[in-house]
Amino acid sequence: MDDWIDYYDSTHTIYASKLHRDLHFEVIARDIVGYIASPDAVVLDYACGEALSAVKVAEACGKLYLAEPAPGVRGRLIARFAPNITIRVRSLDDLRTMDENSVDLVVMNSVAQYMTSAELDSAFDVIHRLLRPTGRFVLGDILRPEVGMISDVLALLRFAATHGFLRDALIGLVSTALSDYRHLRNKVGLQRYGEDEMIAKLGAAGFSATRATRNIGHNPWRMTFVAQH
Q1: Cα–Cα distance for residue pair 128/130, rounded to 1 Å
Q2: Which residues face 142 on adjacent strands?
Q3: Other residues' Cβ atoms within 10 Å of the Cβ of residue 79
Q4: Rounded to an integer, what distance in angstroms lies between the CA atom of residue 126 and that of residue 213?
Q5: Which of 93, 160, 184, 218 is the most buried (most CB within 10 A)?
Q6: Residue 83 Cα to chain centre, angstroms
Q7: Total count of domains within the chain
């Protein structure tokens, strides 16, 4: 995962435009809010990235923890949300010292593909310890083995056409094909899991899981799972 952390901590071009970036985080925030069961809930966004719409999530819960491994991104999160008493920023290592059974909802979205299988198992163990017995763990944007990059491209173009940045998306796809992201994806690869495989993996970590009817975010070809103790 370290190579990917370094990439996302750099000045990357993963988004086609500012509009694309902003909409990406708006859609994710909307979907996370849909999983918050109570206005008093404690929510953890695991490896949250820039979390540009985190305020919308914070408005729907009692406390929001943003856990981010990339130090540069984490510094920006701390600066951005320092005045907001509902939002607290943590490193992934900090999660190991948080109180057991202290979180109502954990969301890990578009993260598992960048982790080795062993790293993901370790993250599941941390999340299982933090999650209250009545809480939920939402694991989103899981890549399927039988679905390739063409589906990701089509999902992006449909999202772009709907929201008015199709030209930027087409230019962005060309830029991405020539970028460090494409090189890193070819070098390191992305982890993919079948539905039964991921349910079994979550089960080995102590969770009972089912696949959600729709994925978090804009890509309908990827999977989201909802898990509980």
Answers
A1: 6
A2: 223
A3: 10
A4: 26
A5: 160
A6: 24
A7: 1
User: What pTM value is reported for the model?
Assistant: 0.88
What residues pair up with 87 in beta bridges, in sequence order?
Answer: 64
Q: What is the pLDDT of residues 137-152, one digit of tens each?
A: 999 999 999 887 778 7
pLDDT tens digits, one per residue of 71-115: 999 999 999 999 999 999 999 999 999 999 999 999 999 999 999
**CA gap 101, 104 in Å, rounded:** 8
Cβ atoms within 10 Å, residue 33: 16
Query: Which residues are CB-neighbours of 33 under 8 A, at least 6 positions away?
Result: 56, 57, 60
Q: How far is CA 78 from CA 26, 127, 188, in A?
A: 19, 22, 30
Q: Residue 202, by phi and psi: left (phi above 0), alpha (psi -120 to 50) or beta?
A: alpha
Q: Is 114 in contact with 141 (CB distance < 8 Å)?
A: no
Residue range(s) defining the domain that contains residue 19: 2-228
**Residue 55 belongs to a domain with what CATH number?**
3.40.50.150
